[in-house]
């Protein structure tokens, strides 16, 4: 999990650089982005606490089912307009 966190952290730095360069990250969006750090950190803290208490196999299966449904919905929307 720590390696995955480090990879996500490096990806975040790269994404921040790309958004800053492209103009997406401006003064107007900077304050909102900084404000979202607190709820995101709280969500991560809750996730770390819950992680050890749930069955990992069931979690993986539920996650895959949710991703499958989301993917099928995207295909439906793309085909039906």
Automatic annotation (TrEMBL):
Domain of life assignment: Bacteria
Residue stretches spanning the membrane: 30-50, 62-79
Name of the protein in its database record: Membrane transporter protein
Keyword entries, A-Z: Membrane, Transmembrane, Transmembrane helix
Keyword Transmembrane helix among UniProt keywords: yes
């Amino acid at each position: 999990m720590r390696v995955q966190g480090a990879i996500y952290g490096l990806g975040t730095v790269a994404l921040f650089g790309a958004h800053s360069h492209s103009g997406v990250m401006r003064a107007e969006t900077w304050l909102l982005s900084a404000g979202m750090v607190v709820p995101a950190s709280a969500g991560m803290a809750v996730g770390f606490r819950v992680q050890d208490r749930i069955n990992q196999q069931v979690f993986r299966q539920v996650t895959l089912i949710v991703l499958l449904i989301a993917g099928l919905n995207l295909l439906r929307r793309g085909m039906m307009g």
